Amino acid sequence: MTRDMRQLDYDELRGVIADQPYMLLFATVSGAHLYGFPSRDSDIDLRGVHVLPAEEVVGLTTGPETLDRTWFQNEAEVDLVTHDPAKFARLMLRRNGYVLEQVLSPLVVATTPEHEELVALAPGCLTKWHAHHYRGFASTQWTLFGKSGELKPLLYTFRVLLTGIHLMRAGEVQADLRELQTIVAEAPGYLGELMAAKAEAEHGPLTGPLTGPSRDLLERDVVALQAALDQAETDSKLADRPTADAALHNLLARTRLRSA
Fold first, then answer.
1. Residue spans per domain, the chain
2. What is the pLDDT of residues 149-180, one digit of tens each?
3. Nearest residue to 244 via CA among 105, 99, 89, 95
4. Does domain 10-125+243-259 have CATH number 3.40.50.1110?
5. CA angle at residue 210 from 204 to 215, to 5 degrees?
6. Region 109-121 average pLDDT
7. What does DSSP assign to residue 151?
8. Is residue 242 a contact partner of residue 127, using CB atoms and an 8 Å limit?
9. Which one of 1, 30, 33, 254 is CB 3.0 to 4.6 Å from 45, fit for a cystine?
10. pTM
11. Is residue 1 pLDDT above 50, yes or no?
């Protein structure tokens, strides 16, 4: 690949969105670009909400709640996943950090007033139970790193643990590891080095020219961050359940009626 995928071409991405079969309430960039460590050969993860027309909602034959498409365009691998508003709203009301990161992503390709409402309602979906999401995701990525030795799952491990810690403490969803390493006191000092190494290859190994942390140090730091997340959850002032359900219902009803 000759194209450097660390830089996003928003005009190109808007063209991608324009070709979709349903109107989109929003589309944002997720994945490594959102997390602050894209590589030269990274794919582009687009996430959003599509609106089914009324006849595909109220009849016996309904439209797709989820659309998932992956293809290559101008040397770039593009992965686009969108959900119907009802499914997306249900996900927002669960302990699902993914969808909240998507709706709050600053890397906006397409937006609408309804997207702005979702952004405003997102804080009412945050609960202390989101710690379980980030704890589980970190465990999965740490296991994957143990098997592959790649930088990508290692950085994902640190990213999700730090996102979870910051969320529990500050009530804010921050997915960018570059920011997290400056605002979470327990963030290891070598993360910048790991991100710089990962920028050269999406599936590059920890070994090689990198002269950084040992496996033992990595394990100690991951265990320490897991403990910090546990304590942050215990101390968190976040609510036990979401409070935005009625407002999300109202937004969904208005969106459906406008599509009729």
1. 10-125+243-259, 130-235
2. 999 999 999 999 999 999 999 999 999 999 99
3. 89
4. no
5. 85
6. 98
7. H
8. yes
9. 30
10. 0.93
11. no
